[in-house]
Amino acid sequence: MIIQQLINGMILGSVYALLALGYTMVYGIIKLINFAHGDIYMLGAYFGYFFLRVLHLNFFIALILSMAICAVLGMLIEFIAYRPLRHSPRIAVLISALGVSFFLENGMSYLFGSDKRSFPQAIETTQYHFGSLQISNIQIIIITTAIVLMILLNIIVKKTKMGRAMRAVSADEEAAILMGINVNRTISFTFAIGSALAAAGGMLIGLYYNNIDPLMGMTPGIKAFVAAVLGGIGIIPGAALGGWLIGILETMTQAVGLSNYKDAIVYAILIVILLLKPTGILGKNKREKV
Amino acid sequence: MAETLLKIANLSVNYGAIKAVRGIDFVVNRGEIVTLIGANGAGKSTILRTISGLEKVTDGTVIFNNQIVNHMPSEKRVRHGIVQVPEGRRVFPGMTVQENLQLGAFTVSNKSQNNSGYDTVYQQFPILKDRRNQDAATLSGGEQQMLAIGRALMAQPKMILLDEPSMGLAPLYIQKIFDIIQKIRDTGVTVLLIEQNANQALKIADRGYVLEGGKIIATGTGDELLSSSDVREAYLGG
What's the structural domain count of chain B? Predict the structure, then answer.
């Protein structure tokens, strides 16, 4: 029973983790809590819907296309709404992010209606039983896709030139400039990667819960943000860890019959971390060397 | 006749209402070590930052390699051969020594050039080779300074700008750093050096400029400035 809940929690947690990665990367590089990030997840689900329902594409092709489009949108949002405010007080960019979020939520409601729509069952569900444990092929797809994407991200960040540039700009923007790194390009790249991961999360959740709506990104967005803070904001492995922990916690809360409180508990965690260890689980207190 | 690599003409730099640099002129010739000395707040760092493009020119021109670079973005200046070792070393923590060097070579796309860059740096700084897989943050201050210089050399600079490289280092390392600066020049890289340690800087410099309140108040060869009684009194402790 508890193992079953643990598995369910890991599945949900992988989606939170995908979202949390975008929060943490963007925070790491420009110190912005990108409130519009959850809405990219929503857009990812809607593009997926379009590719599956209208064009009848294969799920994974639709996934890749939706990720690519959201990557471009993420870069565009950064270029239009955040870049002009790069040297303004941080609160200005934060408000701009809220504006983008409202724009996307209400724009999508206006264009496509605010009703829930059912996400195409692009892959037929099969249940597998292992003793008392039960797991569906959809769940396996979700967790596998999430893990593959995280491994790819890890390779990009650790092994590629662009990944090194991302880490350098996060660590010390001015020193990065002195290495000849183009900071704008690096920030665009970060938004592209973060948005692509969010889009993947949106499509996977569409497949899992079978429905999508223009406000679907709000709550998961905030939970993923909490996950990023829990793991240590700005720290990439922390986001994955935080995502899984929040997913498991949420599932466990439901399992013990406290469904109504599941969101409240996540927010309570945010408050507790901020009070006790604001740097998160993997966060270190920085010390300067003389 | 010496060939000019960097020419600063009538340069002024303001930070808002504060005039940090007030109409200065100086040149650095190819293959020289030139030092700017002066007290804290004399405008030395501002000049270096302006040459790297981190600060905007208020008035005047910065000419590098016969090209006006006033409006060239910083990262592009690196490609043109202006590479700075910033004050306080600024190595990237959380990355290994090797990764720091790789970042130094960010603008160098040619692989074989890059490999020879590592060879040169590791030869010059064997300690960095021993520690290449170690987090840069775990190095001592002197080792970090060597890494910062090595990282700058990876970019294959025409000119290296050094901002207070001896600051906060143990005496043993200070001597080492000044030796290294001379070696760098011997490999054909031009050096512009800022130092509070004016004595040491003038000893290795071909020429020097003395700054005060954003203006150049004296200039001469390293030896001339070292023996000038005014300079001795003001900056070298009598």
Answer: 1
Instruction: Write out pLDDT tens, residues A161-190.
Output: 999 999 999 999 999 999 999 999 999 999
- How far is A178 from chain B, CA to nearest CA, in Å? 6
Q: Residue A288's pLDDT is what? A: 43
Which pLDDT tens digit goes with each residue over B117-142? 899 899 999 999 999 999 999 999 99
Tell me whether residues B103 and A164 touch, CB distance under 8 A.
yes
For A199, phi and psi rounded to 5 degrees?
Answer: -60, -40
Please answer whether residues B193 and B203 qualify as being in contact, where contact means their C-beta atoms are separated by less than 8 angstroms: no
pLDDT for residue A135: 93
Q: Which of B157, B159, B75 is nearest to B117 (CA)?
A: B157
Q: Decide yes or no: CATH 1.10.1760 for domain A2-114+126-276.
A: no
Domain boundaries along the sequence of chain A: 2-114+126-276
Over residues A145-152, the mean pLDDT reads 96
Give the best residue of B48, B106, B114, B140 to mutate against chain A (max A CB count within 10 A): B106
B166 close contact with A: CB closer than 8 A: no
Mark B201-215 as b/e (b = at least 16 C-beta within 10 Å).
bbebbbbbbbbbebe
Q: What is the CATH number of the domain that holds B197?
A: 3.40.50.300
Closest by Cβ to B54, choosing from A167, A174, A181 = A174
Domain range for B228: 4-235
Instruction: Specify whether the CB–CB gap between B198 and B235 falls below 8 A.
Output: yes
CB contacts of B110 in chain A (<8 Å) are: none
Distance CA A167, CA B22 (A): 37
Specify the pTM: 0.92
For chain A, say whether B70 makes contact (Cβ under 8 Å). Answer: no
Give the number of other Cβ atoms within 10 Å of residue A239's Cβ. Answer: 36
As for the ipTM of the complex, it is 0.94
Find which of A87, A172, A178 to mutate to test the B interface (most B CBs within 10 Å of its CB): A178
Contacts of A174 in chain B (CB under 8 A): 54, 86, 90
Instruction: For chain B, report the end-to-end CA distance as a whole number of angstroms.
Output: 35
Residues of B in Cβ contact (< 8 Å) with A179: 75, 78, 103-104, 106-107, 151, 155
Q: What is the mean pLDDT of each run of 10 residues along chain B (238 residues)?
A: 90 92 96 93 93 96 96 96 96 94 92 85 93 94 95 96 94 92 95 92 95 92 88 71
Residues in chain A whose Cβ is within 8 Å of chain B: 161, 164-165, 167-168, 171-172, 174-183, 286, 289-290
Q: Is the pLDDT at A126 greater than 60, yes or no?
A: yes
- The pLDDT tens digits of the residues spanning A191-222 come to 999 999 999 999 999 999 999 999 999 999 99
Q: If we measure between CA atoms, which residue out of A51, A42, A50 comes closest to residue A19? A: A42
Contact B103/A174, CB-based, under 8 Å? no
Q: Which residues of A touch B84 (CB under 8 A)?
A: 178
